[in-house]
Amino acid sequence: MAQSFTLGIPHLWDELQTVQTHGLYWLNIDRTQDVSGLCRQTILAQPESTHVTLIEAGHDIQVTSALAEDYSQGPASLPVYRLTPTLTALMALPDELTRLMGPASSLFILLLPATDLTTLSADGINRWINHIHRWLQRCNATLLVISHGAGTDILRNQLAPLNRLVSGLASLRWQLDRWLYDVAFWCNERGVSAQQNIPLTHTSQGWQANVETTLPPPQPHSDEDSYLAHAAILEGAPPLSEHWHLFTSNHELFTAALAAQAATLVFSLMQSDQVDDLARQIHTLRRQRGNALKIAVREQAVVQRSSDERLLLACGANVVIPLHATLSNALVSLEGLQGHTFLRHVPANITTLLDALRPLKLRGYQTKAQFCTLLLDLLDNPLIPHDGRGTLASLRPVSGIDAEQVLKLCNLRRDGDLVTLDGQSLVLFLAYCRPHELDTALRFIFPLPVEELFIHRRLWHQDAELMLELTRMRSETPTQGPPPESLPPQPVSAPADTAMPPPRRVPRRLTLGMTSREPSS
C-alpha cells in the first residue's frame, strides 16, 4: 500500500482529502489570506516522522511566521525554500526536489500565486505538468500545489482536462459566512470522487467540514401558481388572472410575501436609491421563506449598475429583468422561473454582503501606491465575478499638455472610480465598466473632447492583465506626494528695489469733433 498524507480537515471524508505517493494534487484557494491557515493545518496534521518540505513562490504570504506560532506538533523539522515562479525555474523544479528527498516518502507543498501561472501559455503549463508527472512516477514523493488569488478559476479550467496527469483538483471557495470545498475530481487508494461540494466552517482549530442533513425533496405548495407583483410592472394592465395579486408599493408586496411559500414575487425598481432597501427585503424573504420562492425584479425607469444587479442576485433574487425588456418579454421570463428551486447560498449577514459587493467607498485621486493596493485587494475578492471588476485605462496626453494638467480636468462622480499618475500618463480605473463602455464614460469625466486631450491609450480588463499591470506599477512606485491641486503655492520673490516698474498705459480722454455732413452733389 502506497504511503498517504492528509489535508487535515476534520469531518471531511478521507476520499476527498487524502493524497498518496506518486500523485500530483492541486488545490486552488480564492483568498490569499486563507493560504497560511490551510497550509499550517495540513502540515501540523502530519506525523512527526513525516518528511515535509515547503516551497514558497511569488509574494510573501507570511506562511513561515504563521507556522512558527505554537508549533507543538507535526513533522520534527520543516525545511522552507523560495522559488521564482518562471517557466525555467518550474521546469528545473524536479531536479531540485530530487536533492531534497528524504529517506522515506516525501510530501512537497508548493505555494504558487495563480497569476504567475496564468501568464504562461497553455502549452507551457501542460509541458510542466507532464514533466512533474513523469518525475513523480519515478520518485517516492507527493506534490501538493496550492495556488491562490485571482486567476484560480482560469487554472481550474485548464487543469480539468489533465485528469490523467493530475490526481486531484479542488478549490476552497469563500462565501462570506462559510467556505466551500469544491472538488472537481480526487483520486487516491480509496477510489475516485468527483463533483462534490462540502461546506466548511473556520474555528480556532482551523477548517472543518459541516455535518449537514440532506434536504428533503421539495413538497407541493398551495401558492406555487400565485403571482404577487407591484402594479407598475404590468404597465397599467389589469391583473392577468385570478392568480395575480397587485400592490401599490414594494413594502406592501414584501409584507404580503412574508406569508408566501412558493409564489412568484415581482418587485419594481424605479430609482437607484431603492437598491439597498430592496436588497434587504429580498434577503429577508429568501432566508426566512426558503428556496421555493421565485423572486424577480423589473427595472422600470433607470438601468442599474452591474454591481447593483449583482447585489440583488446575491441576496436571493432569481432574475433581474432589464429596462429594455417589453412586458411580453418580462412575462416570458417569469414563466421560465416556474418549477425552479433557488440553489445558490445566501449568507446570513446582509451587512457583510452589502460591504463585499459594493464598489470601493472612495473615488478620485489616489497616490500611486495606494491606488495599486486598493485595486489588488479588489482583485482578491472572490465574490466579484472574474474579468468583471472594471477597466483600467492608461491615457497619455497630447504634446504640450502635462498629465497633472489633465488631472485637474478629471471629474469622477461614482464610488469606486479612481485615478492616479504613472509617469507622463493618467491612469483611470472605472469600477464595473466594460471596455466598450469606456468612451461613453470618458465623455462624462472630462469637459473637453477626449481625442483633443489624449494621443494614446492602453486598456486592461481581465483579472490576469490587471494583476500584472498593477504589480508592475507598484514595483515602480517612487515616493509620491499629494496631488498636484493640493501642492503648496511656490513663494514669489519680491522685485529688487533697483528694478524699474514696467511702464503703465494711462488712458487719455479724446473728444471727437462734430462736423456737419455736406450734401452730396
From TrEMBL:
Biased composition (Pro residues): 480-492
A Pfam entry, by short name: CBP_BcsE
Matching InterPro entries: BcsE (IPR017745)
Location of the region described as Disordered in the Swiss-Prot/TrEMBL record: 474-521
Superkingdom classification of source: Bacteria
NCBIfam families xrefs: cellulose_bcsE
Protein name: Cellulose biosynthesis protein BcsE
Organism of provenance: Edwardsiella anguillarum
